[in-house]
Amino acid sequence: MAKARQARIAAYDTTLRDGAQQQSVAFTVADKLAVARILDQLGVAYIEAGWPGAIPKDTEFFSRARTELDLGAARLVAFGSTCRAGVAARDDEQVRALIDSQAPVVTVVAKSDPVHVTSALRTTPEENLRMVRETVEVLRAEGREVMVDLEHFFDGLRHATAPGQPTYAVARSAGSSPAAGPVPYPVAVALTAALAGAHAVVPCDTNGGSLPGAVARDVELLRTSLDLAGLTECTVGIHTHDDSGLAVACALAAVEAGARQVQGCVNGFGERTGNANLLTLVANLELKTDWAVLPGDEEERAHRLATLSTVSRTIGEIANRAPSGRLPYVGAKAFAHKAGLHASAIRVNPDLYQHIDPARVGNTMTMLVSEMAGRASVELKARELGIDTGGDPELLGRVTEAVKAREAAGYAYDAADGSFELLLRSARQDLPEYFRVESWRASIQARPRPGQTALATDGTTITEAEATVRLWAGGERFATLGEGNGPVNALDHALCEALVHVYPEIDDFELTDYKVRILDAERGTRSIVRVLIDITDGEQTWSTVGVGTDVIEASWEALTEGHVVGLLRRGVEPR
Ligand SMILES: CC(=O)SCCNC(=O)CCNC(=O)[C@H](O)C(C)(C)COP(=O)(O)OP(=O)(O)OC[C@H]1O[C@@H](n2cnc3c(N)ncnc32)[C@H](O)[C@@H]1OP(=O)(O)O
Ligand SMILES: CC(=O)C(=O)O
């Protein structure tokens, strides 16, 4: 029977604000609208989409969102700061821009570390409390749901509780008698915000230097202080950065200590080393605690959770930042197994080497075959490729030994499942012969630019590559010439030119990645090189490997194997 769930933790996504603070991430307004729709479908509670008034694109986003964004359960959040020192919140341009954005929720960042207040803001702790109080009051009077990000809360508590530091009593309004305290300064900022009507206060580990134990202790202090002041309705959130590699751990520790809103970014985007990865947080909370994060009943939540890997890839694509394969839960390698002993246990029961069933987050298990493989690895990889080995120990042993021998010579099958498939099929004697190569040749020529008599040394020399390929396919002999901007490119053209007459399917093949690795660099230009290539037909992508003492020879091997694998994957019969 399903365990009874505790109340909900709100997932607060800041990919479009703090995530956009990552180097090289720059969303267009259209990107932001698309990301917001995806996050809404996933089921996050809040989407913090930018800082209107400070960033023109974000002002435009909130304006367009009014007509172009039809969100379901998610609430759109405009982010900004409290009013400036010495300026009434009503007169502050930034606060006005937040109101004008018409976002139903506004989050304001407030300085909560006394050191920052005096040195960065260059004002007094009391004036900062006034800025927080007035800003929240003005936003509440405009009917907004208001949250306050307590910048540098955890570092601030260390500074504020050092010997000799003052404590603060907090009044509900200017001049009224204290309603709470005395408390250390960061807690006073939180109480001020809550007394002014903030719905949530969110301690931030802005510099990302905190450890989970300290975060739990400080969040508990904050929760207790709010409760003692009768502010039980005010939610405590958590906003962490990954500078110590602990952003997710700190956020989970905060939840244990009373936080009921978790902030983070898809794929851990964010300033410097990034924010807590919201997808990791959602998966951990949904799968490993009694907390519910996504909306709906158990079945609906399971369905939403199963979209997590797609959300990661799609938003990574929109941001033009391919997600790391090693991302927890959603990465392409999150359930990839390389060690032979792991594979032998997995063959009996996948749970033996996996913390969850990958399908629950929309991911899949993959087997990697390499020098570390055993027969079980080969059998499972074959199954993954749709090839039934029948568990034949002789075949499995032969292929395992071949993989180990070829890896010792420089091949890398864990990165080239296409080449592994050919090795396996060849051992089973079911590798179709699509074409037979008689010979190939590639050459490169450098020549001066028109009007010059010698090669330039400034990179403006013209280089031209040419290749010829002679092969048999479909009972015919082809001799083709290819030109290109390098010898491999020319060979690719010559090969395709010959094959396309018999196999028009290869017109869809496109080389998407080409990596060269020198395997014994100490031998200089006599080194052995490994070439790995990725080819796609628009629907599937496959990888092949070539090894040789010459980069062109290695490339040719990877290239020809790549075309054979493509024809196999398309189910083409030899002609
Ligand atoms: C921890 C975080 O990640 S918070 C989010 C940070 N995000 C961003 O900074 C992205 C958007 N930022 C911007 O577009 C610009 O930095 C702006 C518009 C906010 C500010 O730019 P400018 O107006 O040119 O100000 P400038 O860079 O000179 O200084 C920042 C001012 O904000 C004030 N300020 C900083 N934090 C706060 C705060 N929490 N509350 C009120 N004022 C603040 C500073 O004291 C300084 O005031 P001053 O002009 O009186 O000296
Ligand atoms: C508000 C915020 O992004 C931070 O303090 O890290």
Strand-helix topology:
Blueprint: E1 10-13, H1 29-42, E2 46-50, H2 56-68, E3 75-81, H3 93-100, E4 105-111, H4 114-119, H5 125-141, E5 145-151, H6 153-160, E6 168-171, E7 178-183, H7 185-195, E8 200-205, H8 212-228, E9 235-240, H9 247-256, E10 261-264, H10 278-288, H11 298-305, H12 308-318, E11 336-337, H13 340-348, E12 366-367, H14 375-384, H15 393-408, H16 417-428, E13 436-447, E14 462-473, E15 476-484, H17 487-499, E16 510-518, E17 529-536, E18 541-548, H18 551-569
Parallel strand pairs: 1-2, 1-10, 2-3, 3-4, 4-5, 5-8, 8-9, 9-10, 11-12
Antiparallel strand pairs: 6-7, 13-14, 14-15, 16-17, 17-18
The chain binds acetyl coenzyme *A and pyruvic acid (PYR).
Pyruvic acid is lined by residues 18, 109, 149, 151, 204, 206, 239, 241.
Structure write-up:
The protein is of the alpha/beta class. It folds into three domains: 10-318, TIM Barrel; 336-428, no CATH class; 436-569, Double Stranded RNA Binding Domain, CATH 3.30.160. Helix content is 37%, strand content 21%. The chain has helices spanning 29-42, 56-68, 93-100, 114-119, 125-141, 153-160, 185-195, 212-228, 247-256, 278-288, 298-305, 308-318, 340-348, 375-384, 393-408, 417-428, 487-499, 551-569, and strands spanning 10-13, 46-50, 75-81, 105-111, 145-151, 168-171, 178-183, 200-205, 235-240, 261-264, 336-337, 366-367, 436-447, 462-473, 476-484, 510-518, 529-536, 541-548. The strands form five sheets. The chain has an eight-stranded parallel barrel, surrounded by nine helices. The model has no long low-confidence stretch (mean pLDDT 95). Acetyl coenzyme *A binds next to strand 4. It catalyses: pyruvate + acetyl-CoA + H2O = (3R)-citramalate + CoA + H(+). Pfam families: HCS_D2, HMGL-like, LeuA_dimer. One of its GO terms (molecular function) is (R)-citramalate synthase activity.
